[in-house]
Design brief:
Blueprint: H1 9-114, H2 118-129, E1 134-141, E2 178-185, H3 188-199, E3 204-217, E4 220-231
Antiparallel strand pairs: 1-2, 2-4, 3-4
């Protein structure tokens, strides 16, 4: 066995220091690798975040583009429908105005037609109710004749721009037709019968005796009487209608 003697003690210490330095260097390198790895993770996370943000922006853009295209299509359809419905509204307004005008004219015709046969009915009822030995000397109307109905045919337009609608005169129902009957009879009971039958007519109402006195007519003693009465519109059951056929060539 050989014995080695270290004649330079500082040299041994230096070698041990060098080992410590090497250990520290290895530990620093390890920390550097760890730090690099950590830096790469943050970088990867940042890259992933940027990619996800770009994908989200792309998806939002595509969805907004599709929604905009759908809204544009709906807008175009609404514009077309608006134009079509505007023409339909104008046509409907014209048709409504024409309908109202025709309805007003029909009301005028009905008002004229309703008074056309008043006196025909009254004279027929008086002739039917007149008893024997009684005759009439005068029949006259005591109420004012009804004013003829009118139609407003002005073409002025209101503020809304719609044409004015023709309308019949709506002042109210026409006044009742009152009349006076003057006649002679040789029997006072015949006068009572005449008043009763006349009151029972569906066309006559409010029959009242205005005057009755004895007079001489053609050398005979008779009773002159004056009756006041009114015309009334009968119910539909009292009217008789006949069908008239006209051949058109």
């Amino acid at each position: 066995m050989m014995i080695h003697v270290n004649l330079h003690p500082k040299r041994g210490k230096k070698s041990s220091g060098d080992g410590a330095s090497a250990s520290l260097a290895a530990l620093g390198a390890r920390f550097a690798r760890i730090k690099g790895a950590v830096s790469d993770v943050y970088l990867a996370g940042a890259v992933v975040t940027v990619v996800a943000a770009c994908a989200a922006v792309g998806l939002l853009y595509s969805s907004q583009a599709e929604a905009e295209a759908a809204i544009v299509v709906r807008e175009e359809a609404a514009v077309r429908d608006s134009a079509k419905f505007a023409s339909l509204i104008v046509a409907q307004t014209k048709a409504t105005a024409r309908r109202d005008s025709l309805a007003a004219q029909l009301r005028v015709i009905a008002a004229i037609d309703s008074n056309r046969y008043v006196w025909a009915h009254l004279l027929d009822e008086m002739s039917r109710s007149l008893p024997q030995y009684t005759w009439l000397t005068a029949v006259e109307q005591t109420s004012a004749p009804p004013a003829p109905p009118t139609v407003d045919t002005t073409t002025a337009k209101p503020k809304g721009g719609k044409p004015a609608v023709a309308a019949a005169d709506t002042a109210g129902p026409p006044p009742a037709t009152r009349f006076r009957v003057t006649g002679h009879t040789v029997d006072i009971q015949a006068l009572t019968m005449f008043m009763r039958d006349l009151e029972g007519s569906p066309f006559v109402r409010n029959v009242q005796l205005a005057r009755s006195e004895a007079v001489v007519a053609d050398g005979k003693d008779v009773t002159e009487f004056t009756l006041n009465a009114e015309y009334q519109t009968p119910h539909r059951g009292a009217l008789r209608t006949d069908t008239i056929t006209v051949r058109v060539r």
